[in-house]
Design brief:
This protein is of the alpha/beta class. It contains nine helices and ten strands. The strands form two sheets. An eight-stranded parallel beta sheet has the order 1-2-3-6-7-8-9-10. The chain has a two-stranded antiparallel ribbon with strand order 4-5. The model has no long low-confidence stretch (mean pLDDT 94).
Length: 264
């Protein structure tokens, strides 16, 4: 169905719930254990593609109870980051899909430091990942740290020189910019040459709240033109992950903006 762009895990009941709405796009959130059984992932991708659904993957967020960080001080974390990216790059190549990857999360080590030495280290590690199948990756921003809009050098030192393909999370940018819609618009403008994929989600601009569209302070009338002709999903926080109605309501909200039914 046009405009229905959803997210779920590999859980069969979550997938069944999403398929009820005939989505155009389905992003599959992966967990570390999923990479131990790549055949199930591949079967799911193939099943969805047979139904005419465009599939995206999302790199696992957590390993051994900790959020992934591309420059983690733990060698086992860095090793897992590399191994998992290499595994997913092979699957993406085989199935002709793309995968969303975070250099780090707001709760990981990298989020607390922005000095030039660590910024260079992040760049080097991303370059290594790009050299090993990175053409299948979309790099997602977070709410604080080096790969966020808090970093004034994010574009000039990382995105532009590496020509990174981005998954731009609207709410993450909004939070990093302390709830400023004018600054969010500047980011959307700056990211346009690089952002081919978006996570569309509202926020009050203070914490990682993952709100349905219209329940936060993002000015969607301003954002909407930047989504035209681009791929995106509604990454809304769910109370029950087997019931995606909040995502469907957000799709309706965005559609009504298109039709002029909502005057913001």
């Amino acid at each position: 169905m046009e405009g229905i762009r959803l997210k779920c895990s590999l859980d069969e009941k979550q997938i069944a719930d999403r398929l009820r709405y005939n989505p155009e796009i389905l992003e599959l959130q992966l967990f570390a254990e999923d990479l131990n059984h790549p055949e199930l992932m591949i079967q799911t991708i193939q099943l969805l593609k047979q139904k005419g659904i465009r599939v995206y993957l999302h790199h696992p967020m957590i390993y051994r109870g900790r959020f992934l960080d591309i420059i983690s001080s733990n060698s086992w974390m860095r090793d897992y980051y590399d191994r998992s990216c290499q595994t997913l790059a092979k699957i993406c190549k085989q199935e002709n899909v793309l995968c969303v990857v975070h250099p780090h999360y707001s709760e990981s080590e990298c989020s607390y430091f922005q000095d030039s030495r660590l910024r260079k280290k992040v760049r080097q590690r991303i370059e290594q990942t790009l050299a090993n199948g990175g053409e299948y990756f979309l790099w997602e921003n977070t709410v604080k740290g080096i790969f966020s809009q808090q970093n004034p050098y994010l574009f000039t030192e990382l995105i532009e020189p590496l020509n990174l393909s981005l998954c731009l999370d609207i709410s993450h940018s909004f939070i990093a910019l302390q709830g400023s819609n004018p600054k969010l618009q500047q980011t959307l403008e700056q990211a346009q040459p690089y952002a081919t994929y978006y996570h569309v989600v509202d926020s009050m601009g203070k914490t990682h709240d993952s709100l349905p569209l219209g329940q936060g302070k993002v000015e969607w009338q301003m954002v909407k033109p930047y989504l035209q002709g681009r791929e995106y999903i509604f990454e809304i926080g769910l109370t029950d992950h087997r019931d995606c109605r909040a995502m469907i309501e957000s799709a309706t909200f965005l559609k009504n903006i298109e039709e002029g039914a909502i005057n913001l």
